Amino acid sequence: MAEICLKNVTKRYGDVVALDSVSFTIRDGSFTSVFGPPSAGKSVLLRVLLGLETIDSGSITINDKDITNALPSERNLSMVFQNLALFPHLTARQNIVFPMVRRRAPQHEIDKRLDRLAGVLNIAHILEKKPAALSGGERQRVAISRALIRDAAAYMMDEPIAALDARLRETMRVELKRLQTELGQTFIYVTHDSDEAMSVADEMVILQNGRVEQVSPPEKVYDAPVSVHVAQLVGTPRINIVNGTVDKNKIKSPFGDLTLIKAPSAKGAVSLALRPEDLTRSSAAKAPLKGEVSDIENLGSFSIITITAGDAELRLIDNGHPDVSIGSTIGVDIDVSEVMAFDPPTGGRVV
Amino acid sequence: MTDVVSNSTQASAGTVAPAMAAQDKLSSARLSMAKKMLLPTQLLLVFIVAFPLIMQVYISLTWWTPLDGTPWYMAYLSWSWFDNYRELFLDDALWGAIWRTVLFVLIAVPIQFFFGLFLASLFYEGIAGKPVLYSLILMPMMIVPAVAGYIFFLIFQQTGPLNAIISLFYEDAFSVNWLNDVNRAFIAVIVADVWQWTPLMFLILFAGLMSVPEDQMRAATILGANWRQRFFRIALPRIKAVIVIALALRIIECFKIFDMLFVMTRGGPGVATESLSLYLYKQTFQSLEWSYVAAIGITVLIVLSVITGVLIAKAGKAARKQVEEA
Amino acid sequence: MSSITLTNTTKKFGEFTAVRDMNLSIKNGEFVAILGPSGCGKTTTMNMIAGIEDASQGTIHFDDRDMTHTSMQKRGVGFVFQNYAIFTHMSVRKNLAFGLEIQGLAKPEVDRRVKEMAEFMALSHRLDQQSSSLSVNEMQKLAIGRSAIVEPSIFLLDEPLSNLDAAFRERMRLELRELQRKLGQTMIYVTHDQIEAMGLADRIAVMNHAVLQQFDTPENIYAKPANVFVARFIGAPSMNILRAHIARDGRKVSAQLGGLEADTIPLDNRLASLALQSGKQELLFGFRPETMRLADRKSAKTFAAEVSLVETVGRRRIGHFQSGLSTFVGTFARRIPLKAGEVVNIELDLDTCHFFDPDTELRLIEPEVETENG
After folding, report:
1. Which residues pair with C243 in a beta bridge?
2. Three state DSSP letters for B240-267
3. Chain A neighbours, 3+ Cβ pairs < 8 A
4. CA-closest candidate to residue B211, choices B232, B242, B233
5. Cα–Cα dist B228/B99, whole Å
6. Which pLDDT does position B14 carry in this prediction?
7. What is the pLDDT of residues A96-106, one digit of tens each?
8. To the nearest 10°, the Cα dihedral for C131, C135, C138, C142?
9. CA C45, CA C11: separation in Å to the nearest integer?
């Protein structure tokens, strides 16, 4: 049980700044996902928290105790590695209880904890098997159990389910979420998959180029991204970014003008950001945006329609059977409260 | 941080952030510890390599021979500076031996290379009976060179199996004395060397070919490239580094050839197959001019080092390029 | 351009059967995705078409030419490898020119086509660089360009997008569709990602355990899955498949989900006749998460379920429900409130629900459309 606090943590490798003055707090009992594109500094952050890397400046505290220079063994943090690192010569049970046996915990205590985990993670039937005899998902659960069996201040996971296939990933992320809710422990979860990060977390820490871009609950990250980078990182399909110009309370775009409720603070050129799932098709006559259909991608329960105007592209989500054809012109509507715009040079939010 | 005693000066810099200083302290302490642990091994290594070398150089600068009746360290009594080195430049017998050795290398190594490459490419494409052939091809390499020499000594006898087999295709009995003729003896020892060392060449080149990504060869095939085009455009350029290493290895080894020749011909007839090593041997044990031999040894060492250095630098460059490409 | 026909094609590796009795007929100019989990035989199928693997049994025809025993060098297919297999010891230009030079084309012709292809693939500025210096995204374009430049009649792609990051994958899906429209070649695309298959292909061949499960248009694969495997594999989250006990009360036929009377839903005519025709008491009942609706109040059409967990992903909410002994998933718009622990009334869109035979796992189909689906 712990509140972990990072203050201005900086880590350099030669000239490369892996973490650039990173500050945020992980609340006790929260499920925090650290999310960012590849090489944003996510794994370095975990390694720094675990004490596997020393930092160049800044401080890390757990429950107000400074652990900046503490050895990994003094930090009491538990970790699930991406490659699982199970011992192939031990059974699932031996693998799981390994951290407890190593700490010379009493047998009844070990049994009690193992029973509980086996129940929650549904692994009671595979405890006597060796890792080679287990499926990918089962191995994953064994690795997670091994990390969870001991009392740690927090449990860290570095893309723990990235190696599994899509179906299993969906199931496992729900199981992890359920597990964390039941155990009430602090989980820190590193991932590059935005859906996964949004789905499991109470709080998202978004890293980009070693800097913290935003720390918010997932819904807020999605609804109110602080920068155009964050807006582009979350949500599938990717958010549409279209060049626009602010003219009083209107934003002009190649697809047409959007009238906002109140005039934005910014002037001149902006990057208009519209989520594909917020755009709806409507009759061309009265819709604020219009464009020529250039691509239709039917994905079963929904489809993605791409419309173009000049060089600009706009993608929108439609139902599974859109009655439009390539080359035709369609109208697109949006709830103006969902319109976002960013300042092109800084990437900061202006609408 | 654990308190490690360190005599590093970096830690004293007051402006450095504490974490960084601590890390430096730790790593420099580790470094000095590592140095201490390595010292005994390094000393032993220096002794093993340096001692014979220094002794060799020392003797080569004298006229000392064991016939003097003085121990080797007293060789300074007949100090001669570079007379031995001057002499070796004028020694026709030595130059003859060197010339024959170079000729031997220039003929034998390319033959081994092309045979080896040919076999490796056959194996790479996959031929029938691969496992059996594989062990069969590697067998000569496992035989002690002296024994191989003896085998070929028997084969090339006037009444030996080679002549007997050739006779089957002739009206008259074919009876050539291979090892007694100047040119034939040279051919015979080359044949023996090729027989014994083509397998090594094959092994290295085959390993090189195996490292060529299979998908690239397939991609080339699907684009319509035939066996020859795939081999010359994809495989060969990708194993340049391996080829250089294989050639360097064989050139160095071949230059030192001794035991096989000793058994087959003892350098004869006359000096027709006398290699540099054989010549040195004769000087050592027949003329007993040890200081002269030492001078030749040092000269050969220097020349070979330079050649090898150039080759290894080339191989290293090719290898680095390959790593970058991968 | 040519059509591809696989007839009873089987591939065995020793005891292991990688592909069993495959019958597949791909039309001229069609874009077909072979979709399945890892180890299902999809790559082996493609390798047999390319000639990288020989078929153990059966035949492969391009148009009416028997290609079963033609070497891969002579099949004239384009192939994009998963790891791209770029000739990293050559420049980008040399890579593109490789196929044309092999064909022995004159240099001006080669140069002209290389230039064209480089422009089409947006690689012009990279032409004289060593190909090992390209980014993954550019390597992929180079791999496609190198195959496309020889204008093969058949184009095979082995999971070409699996090494790319998510944002670029979306972009490349669009570009691949464009490419196929422009080139008009017969394309076969192997993937384990159902979104890619749905988004790209004219028809999808779903494989599992070496056996072709279904070969149909994306719409039909989604709406009329042949069996439980296909139903679960297509769509995210996957289709809910629950055990159902069929109860009959006079003319009314209903399904008790999880065998519980409390979770009884009345069936419409289509489902009722399907259930009755099967003659079985126990069936598998399948419905997609996205077809569920939360009803304001309890009615004959609804059944109650407890919300056990809620995930929020963008504008969507994924609800995990518990009802009696069964658990299932539903997706909703985020504006619909959903809290863990509350009990809600769920109404299903019966038109999109399916019955599966619990023994064969095949979907029960109406007799009149049986011939259509084969």
Report:
1. C284
2. HHHHHHHHHHHHHHHHCCCHHHHHHCCC
3. B, C
4. B242
5. 37
6. 39
7. 998 888 888 88
8. 30
9. 8
**Which residues fall within 8 angstroms of residue A188, CB to CB, at 6 or more apart?**
A4, A26, A32, A34, A46, A49, A154, A155, A156, A157
**H or E element that contains C77:** strand C77-80
Between A and C, how many CB-CB pairs are < 8 A?
92
Residue with the two structure tokens 């890579």: C95
User: CB atoms < 10 A from the CB of C192, how many?
Assistant: 21
For the stretch B176-214, pLDDT in tens is 788 888 888 889 899 999 999 999 999 999 999 998 988
- In chain C, which residues have their Cβ closer than 8 Å to the Cβ of B242? none
φ, ψ of residue A264 to 5 degrees: the values are -75, 160
Alpha helices in chain B (DSSP H): 18-60, 83-90, 92-125, 130-142, 145-155, 161-167, 182-210, 214-222, 227-230, 236-238, 240-255, 259-264, 276-282, 290-325
Angle between helices B92-125 and B240-255 (to 10 degrees): 140
Query: What number is the ipTM of this complex?
Result: 0.84
**Which of A313, C86, C344 is closest to B219 using CA atoms?**
C86
Across the interface, which of A37, A218, A236 has its CB nearest the CB of C165?
A: A37
pLDDT digits (tens, 9 = 90+) for C11-57: 999 999 999 999 999 999 999 999 998 889 999 999 999 999 999 99
Q: Say which of C51, C74, C85 has its CB closest to residue B213.
A: C85
- Angle of helix C107-120 relative to helix C92-102, nearest 10 degrees, comes to 130
Q: What burial class does residue A279 get, using C-beta atoms within 10 Å of its C-beta: 0-12 exposed, 13-18 middle, 19+ buried?
A: buried
8 A C-beta contact, residue C21 and residue C9: yes
Which of A200, A108, A215 lies closest to A155, judged by CA?
A200
Distance, CA of A52 to CA of B273 (rounded, Å)? 65
Q: Do A54 and B22 touch (CB under 8 A)?
A: yes
Write out the H or E segment, with its range, that includes residue A180. Answer: helix A166-183
Q: Which residues pair with A330 in a beta bridge?
A: A291
Task: State the Cα–Cα distance between residues B319 and B238, nearest whole angstrom.
Answer: 9
Query: Hey, is the C-beta of A172 within 8 angstroms of any chain B C-beta?
Result: no
- Give burial (CB, 10 Å; 0-12/13-18/19+) of B139: exposed
Cross-chain Cβ contact C150/B224 below 8 Å: yes
- Cβ neighbors of B73 (< 8 A, separation 6 or more) are none
Contact C86, C134 (CB under 8 A): yes
For residue A262, which amino acid is it? K
The pTM of the full predicted model, rounded to 2 decimals, is 0.79
Are A54 and B19 within 8 A, CB to CB?
yes
For residue B179 the two structure tokens come to 């090892």
Counting Cα atoms < 13 Å in the Cβ hemisphere of C288 gives 18
User: Is A175 an 8 Å CB contact of chain C?
Assistant: no
Angle formed at CA C12 by CA C6 and CA C16, multiple of 5 degrees? 135
Contact by Cβ (8 Å): B148, B192: yes
For C51-80, b/e burial (b = at least 16 CB within 10 A) is bbbebeebebbbeeeebbeeebbebbbbbb
Q: Give the contacts of A78 (CB within 8 A, at least 6 positions apart).
A: A99, A147, A148, A150, A152, A154, A155, A156
Is the confidence at residue C324, as pLDDT, over 60?
Answer: yes
Distance CA A248, CA A348 (A): 19
Report whether A155 contacts A80 (CB < 8 A).
yes
Q: Do C6 and C24 touch, CB atoms closer than 8 A? A: yes
Angle at A219 between CA A215 and CA A220, to 5 degrees: 50
Q: Which tokens is B246 given?
A: 């294989």
DSSP labels, C282-298: EEEEEE-GGGEEEESS-
Question: Residue A18: how many CB atoms within 10 A of its CB?
Answer: 22
